[in-house]
Amino acid sequence: MNDRSRFLVTGGAGYVGSHVVAALRDAGHEVVVFDNLRTGHRESVPDGVAFVEGDLADRAMVDSILARGPWDGVLHFAALSLVGESMQHPLRYMEANAGLGFILIDACVRHGVKRFVFSSTAALFGQTEDALITEETPIIPGSPYGESKHMVERALLWADRIHGLRSACLRYFNAAGADPDGRIGEDHRPETHLIPLVIDAALGRRDALHLFGDDYPTPDGTCIRDYIHVTDLADAHLAALEAIHERSVVYNVGTGVGHSNMEVIRSVERVTGRVVPWHLAPRRPGDPARLVAGADRLRRETGWTPRFTALDEIVETAYRWRLAHPHGYGAAGDA
């Protein structure tokens, strides 16, 4: 995108959202972040980016913000995102992800927004025997989290057919790493993502890591995931914005290479030079054995390609962020 555009980013103070906001700002665009800060961090929003604290459940506020158009597009990241939690509270996930997503889509239609980029998930696919998951792989969500994201994808399909709202649904696999320049990084409370958990275990900042299951049908018995650097993921969002000028698209976003949980532990040990303490725990409900993306369509249609292809490269940026920000965006003692 060469021309200066104006974008609204929901959940733009969260992990992936903040990296996309930084990429948009670096590209010279005007960005407004809308976030309730329940899991996001005000400190992650770059200088020069407008910030509005609020919730998608507040329909009047959503309408008020979209009425401040025109907008060249909306990028939607705001969501609950824990597979395990969704297995305990399925209706909460349906309401927060699908229900509030419908509110936002409806408001975008009424206010004349023409482009919508949706942060979807590889959790749509559940268990599969496919070596690589493509956009044609059958959608069989293995959790209410994945189901709630699929419901939003379906709503966007009909919003395009009936109202002309062009959308990109980006189904990503495991976002990881941190901004290479160290400006922003990963800070979940509590942290649930594997790479920062392994790093903190190596640094002695947490107890021994729980490794959930070693009896999966994989070479070392642990789950395999496609880890994509969060900066590459941000680049994919900008590429998707270009792709939907004329039509809606659905893209898987990943590297096409899977790494097991045990391989992540070994990578962290190589990068940090420390031993990672861990012990075995039972499987978690809803965890597929293998999720690896076939992202050829995205590469072919947009020219996007990941810059961080080695697991150690991804881990190294996450490690530098954890070292420089031992308490994330907060101060010592913050929850």
Automatic annotation (TrEMBL):
Pathway: Carbohydrate metabolism; galactose metabolism. PANTHER family: UDP-ARABINOSE 4-EPIMERASE 1 (PTHR43725:SF53), UDP-GLUCOSE 4-EPIMERASE (PTHR43725). This is UDP-glucose 4-epimerase. NCBIfam families: galE. Homodimer. It catalyses: UDP-alpha-D-glucose = UDP-alpha-D-galactose. Residues 8-254 form the NAD-dependent epimerase/dehydratase domain. Its cofactor is NAD(+). GO terms for molecular function: UDP-glucose 4-epimerase activity.
